[in-house]
Design a protein that fits this description.
Blueprint (H helix, E strand, L loop, with lengths): L1 H18 L1 H95 L19 E4 L8 E4 L6 E3 L4 E8 L6 E6 L6 E8 L9 E2 L4 E4 L10 E8 L2 E3 L6
Antiparallel strand pairs: 1-2, 2-9, 3-8, 4-5, 4-7, 5-6, 6-9, 9-10
Helix pairs in contact: 1-2
Length: 245
């Protein structure tokens, strides 16, 4: 009831103000002030919105810069890892190539050494060619660790290449025939081997002289009847016989 009465009184007062010039001025002044307050409030709201937008923009830029920094750091780490992997691979490849080169050089030195024989001890001297009138038809290493010599005829006599002692006589089977090994020094540093022999005419442990017949060619079925497989060993290692004749 009081609220209704107050509203009626307020409306009556406003109506009375509107009827007078002074009243209209009061109402106009109040309206202007209300508009000014509303304008200030709207401006404050707008400024707050702008500031919030700026704050959010700063945060977004900071996040973008942080993401870029992390991306650059990750790219740098990845590049460093790739560079390290490449360096290790290059090092391994260089080591592999060096190892291959060392192996090739070692093989080359072995080949050179086989063609540049160390002189035999004075007690042995030069080796006598084991088959009179024979010729070399297969160099050392062609078919095995021996030299292949062809005799002028089948079943040709085979001679001891130097003075020595028969260290071993062995039948290697029907395919290879008999093998005779002669020891030429007391220390055992020089030995000669004779393969594809028929039954030898000397016995194990017997002494032989250079040029003495020890057997005849043609003992094995895999090699010709006129063929001798001749080998030389120094300190247990077979070498090329060619330089010792």
């Amino acid at each position: 009831m009081d609220i209704t009465r107050n509203r009626v009184q307020l409306n009556t007062s406003i109506a009375q103000l509107r009827e007078t010039q002074q009243g209209r001025r009061v109402l106009l002044l109040q309206a202007v002030r209300a508009q000014q307050v509303a304008s200030v409030q709207a401006g404050n709201i707008f400024q707050n919105i702008l500031q919030e937008r700026k704050r959010l923009a700063v945060i977004r830029e900071q996040r973008r810069q942080e993401a870029l920094r992390r991306a650059r750091e990750e790219a740098a780490r990845r590049k460093a890892r790739e560079a390290e992997i490449a360096r290790v691979r290059d090092q391994q490849e260089r080591e592999r190539q060096q190892q291959l080169e060392n192996e090739r050089q070692s093989q080359a030195n072995t080949v050179i050494a086989s063609f540049r024989p160390v002189p035999l001890p004075a007690s042995v001297g030069r080796l006598q060619f084991p088959i009179p009138g024979g010729r070399i038809v297969g160099d050392f290493g062609t078919d095995g660790d021996w030299m292949t010599i062809r005799a002028p005829r089948d079943g040709a006599p085979v001679l001891a290449a130097a003075d020595g002692e028969i260290a071993q006589i062995q039948l290697l089977g029907a395919n290879y025939g008999y093998s005779v090994i002669i020891l030429h020094t007391d220390s055992g540093s020089v030995m000669t081997g004779y393969g594809n022999l028929q039954y030898p005419v000397v016995g194990a442990g017997s002494a032989v002289k250079a040029g003495q017949i020890i057997g005849y060619t043609g003992g094995g079925t895999l090699f010709g009847l006129d063929q001798l497989n001749f080998s030389v060993a120094r300190d247990g290692i077979t070498v090329n016989p060619r330089g010792y004749f």
